Amino acid sequence: MGGTVRRTVGGPVRTALMDEAYEALLSLILDEGLAPGTPLRIDTIAREWDVSATPLREALAKLEHTGLVRRVPLKGYTVAPMLTDEEFSQLMAARLLIEPYNARHACERDAAGTTQSLQEWHARMTQAAVQRDNDDFRAYLQADSAFHDVIAKKCGNRFLCDAIDPLGAHVQRFRRFHGTRVTDTEIALAEHQAILDAFDVGDPEQCETAMRAHLQGVADRAARS
Predict the structure, then answer these.
(1) Where in the chain is the domain with CATH 1.10.10.10?
(2) Which member of 88, 98, 147, 185 has the greatest number of CB atoms within 10 A?
């Protein structure tokens, strides 16, 4: 894991938009694996990325809400500690409360549209699982997260959608940098296929059941790792 803040892919951020600064900072934490406690100094990042400090400050405040960064009095922002096993278990419990509901209502609102989007991300996830570079599961986990995001957005409840966003980010970070390898790709892909099949036939109850089975499977496999 890195101990310094660098932007090595795609060049420095060249815009004052907060959302782009947020995505760039999120990439540092999730894709480049900044170590817990790494300082995120606004002035330093603003200078290195040639961007105003204002969008960075707003982006860090948003990231603090997700729990991925912490604001330390008199010191500024730092990368938050990794989730413990118990915290990950609690996170999955929260997802089990929200995402089966999302799946049911996404199916009721737009089964066909959801199916089309899910097919794309399932294909990308499958390809990433086959073509991954050594132990770099970035593309695989990003496609996994996007699959779930589609359902959350199609549900039509923006509050639940907003709640899922930080949960998914924590799952990505935990699975990539917790010291355990991602070894359940075939099982997870089969579970996603079951969710996709349920949307394809337009069965809300089946969608809910398949999502619950998938998330419970993820939680159980993490507990055994």
Answers:
(1) 18-79
(2) 147
Contact in structure between 166 and 65 (CB atoms under 8 Å): yes
Q: Within 10 A of 8 (CB to CB), how many other CB atoms are there?
A: 9
| Partners of 39 in beta bridges | 78
Q: In angstroms, what CA-CA distances link 187 with 26, 59, 179, 217?
A: 28, 35, 20, 9
**Hey, what are 159's tokens?**
């509050």
Structure tokens at 192: 């996603």
Query: DSSP code of 81?
Result: P
135-151 pLDDT, tens digit per residue, is 557 788 889 989 999 99
Model pLDDT for residues 47-95, shown as the tens digit of each residue = 988 888 888 999 999 888 888 899 988 889 999 898 888 988 999 999 9
Who contacts 3 (Cβ-Cβ below 8 Å, separation ≥6)? 34, 35, 38
Which has the closest alpha carbon to 167: 223, 105, 116, 218? 218
Question: Where in the sequence of the chain do the CATH 1.20.120.530 domains occur?
Answer: 85-224
Place 14 in a pLDDT band, splitting at 50, 70 and 90: very low
* CATH code, residues 85-224: 1.20.120.530
**Is it true that domain 18-79 has CATH number 1.10.10.10?**
yes
Query: What gap in Å lies between CA 103 and CA 86, rounded to an integer?
Result: 26
